[in-house]
Amino acid sequence: MFHAFDPGMSLGWAYWSSQRPQSKLIDLHADCEGAVYLRARSRLLEIINPNDIVGIEAALMPRSVSIRSRLVLFGIRSAIVAVAYERVARLIEIEPHRWRAHFIRCVTAPKQVPRKHRRAWLKAKAQEEVQRRGWGDVSQDEADAFGILDYLRSSVDAEYAIRTTPLFAECEGV
After folding, report:
1. Structural domains in the chain (count)
2. Roughly how many angstroms between the first and final C-alpha of the chain, as a whole number?
3. Three-state DSSP class for 28?
4. How far is CA 78 from CA 10, 36, 173, in A?
5. Distance, CA of 68 to CA of 128 (rounded, Å)
6. Pairing relation of β-strands 53-57 and 20-27?
7. Which range marks the domain in which residue 99 is found?
8. What are phi and psi of 165, to 5 degrees?
9. Cα–Cα–Cα angle for 124, 127, 131, nearest 5°?
10. pLDDT digits 0-9 by tens, 134-155
11. What is the pLDDT of residues 87-101, one digit of tens each?
């Protein structure tokens, strides 16, 4: 099974269920940092199985992110990596610019979008793409996970990859 994660306190998770992708938002908030990691590990052990293919967004953060936020993000990432290893699942780390170029056909917001709103603009584009594909009305974290999932599956499954190209979409409409 394919799984994709957008790490954060609200963990975006997308996965393929039969013929259709699904998503969930997993709340990892807890009273202390250790409890966050324990909760993440517990939930991931329920999700990831042997031989699954797991995509995770690479942790690339601007300088403005606090050290506490960085530690929590890397802790959640570590839990995903550890559970994938333990379950003998294939783990693929995917840089944001790669899945965005594939999924929403852009990697940065237009220059006219104020700098402080560019990340939100990209997340809104991902949500729009999820809706355009008929995959539902989802949170920003779930939309990012869908983008990661779509890129992941396209990278590993050649038959799926050809169906996600703009050329195929144009031919389907004929």
Report:
1. 1
2. 32
3. coil
4. 16, 12, 43
5. 31
6. unpaired
7. 2-172
8. -80, 155
9. 140
10. 999 999 999 999 999 999 999 9
11. 999 999 999 999 999
Write out the H or E segment, with its range, that includes residue 166.
Answer: helix 166-172
For 140, the token pair is 């920003």
Q: How far apart are CA 159 and CA 108, in angstroms?
A: 28
Q: Rounded to an integer, what distance in angstroms lies between the CA atom of residue 151 and that of residue 146?
A: 9
Q: Going by C-beta distance under 8 Å and a sequence separation of 6 or more, which residues neighbour residue 106?
A: 100, 122, 125
Look up residue 53 and give its two tokens. Answer: 């293919």
pTM: 0.89
**CATH number of the CATH domain containing 56:** 3.30.420.10
- How many C-beta atoms lie closer than 10 Å to residue 59's C-beta? 15
> Residue holding tokens 């606090």?
66
With tokens 């700098």, the residue in question is 115
State how far the Cα of 12 lies from the Cα of 27, in Å rounded to an integer.
9
The residue behind tokens 């998770």 is 13
